[in-house]
Design brief:
Blueprint (H helix, E strand, L loop, with lengths): L4 E6 L2 E6 L7 E5 L13 H11 L2 E3 L9 H14 L4 E6 L1 H15 L8 E4 L11 H4 L12 H9 L22 E6 L5 H13 L4 E6 L2 H28 L1
């Protein structure tokens, strides 16, 4: 576990590094907020805690607000991190879609995959036909279900809504690294998480699914679970690469 951390403004976005540590193992943490917008700075509180808990550097990449440019930017940040050593990926909401899309893109290219991935309340299906979008709309005050279709359309542009890199739930999930997923039972994106976990498990992917009773419980518990998951899989990959 790391102590003090520092924030460095790198070429692809702000990066939290352990003070005095050597940057070799990185978590690429892709931000996302309920408006399908936000900035890398929004992810820094989570990034700081992950660095303290794991001792890994955490890079919060900048990306353009439209698809496929956003995925291209995240891929470029991945390449930058990968040049330094093993990389895990993580993402929240739209960032979860980009993190999962990156997994599919790298796998299809025959490239080295991340050591593992963590998806938090991810938006994984831009067709927006999941029942939880309606059933949980009143309980989830963090996402405006009424404006979500317009925001999703602006982000997707002319890309078909079921394109696997835009909507990873519609992709082939075979061959992915271990994935941890977090969601609250009361949130509108719950069904995206449940469906992805089911399909990934059926495809032979190691899945760690965490569903919390509500968003407050999720916020209290998920950072520790994320850190434990990253430490388990990232340490194993780092050791193997050093042998």
């Amino acid at each position: 576990m790391a102590g003090e951390v520092r924030v460095v403004d790198g070429p692809f976005g702000p990066e939290v590094q352990p003070e005095g540590g050597t940057v070799g193992r990185t978590v690429l943490y892709v931000h996302g907020d309920p408006r399908l917008a936000g900035t890398p700075q929004d992810a820094l509180p989570t990034a700081r805690e992950l660095t303290r808990l794991t001792g890994r550097a955490v890079l919060c990449p900048r990306y353009r607000p439209h698809f496929p440019q956003a995925l291209e930017d995240v891929h470029a940040a991945w390449e930058y991190c990968h040049d330094r050593g093993p990389v895990a990926v993580a993402g929240k909401r739209l960032g979860g879609a980009l993190a999962a899309g990156l997994l599919l893109r790298l796998r299809d290219a025959g490239a080295v995959l991340p050591t593992c991935a963590v998806l938090t309340s991810p938006l994984l299906d831009f067709t927006l036909d999941a029942p939880s979008l309606l059933l949980n709309a009143a309980a989830d005050r963090t996402v405006d279900a009424e404006t979500l279709p317009a925001r999703a359309a602006a982000y997707a542009g002319t890309t078909p809504r079921d394109h696997p890199l835009l909507s990873p739930l519609h992709g082939n999930l075979h061959g992915l690294p271990p994935v941890q997923l977090h969601a609250a039972g009361t949130e509108v994106l719950l069904d995206d998480t449940l469906a992805f976990a089911t399909r990934a498990a059926r495809s032979g992917v190691a899945v760690d699914l965490r569903v919390y009773e509500d968003l407050s419980a999720q916020g209290l518990r998920q950072l520790g679970a994320m850190a434990a998951f990253l430490n388990t899989w990232h340490r194993s990959a780092s050791f193997s690469s050093d042998v």
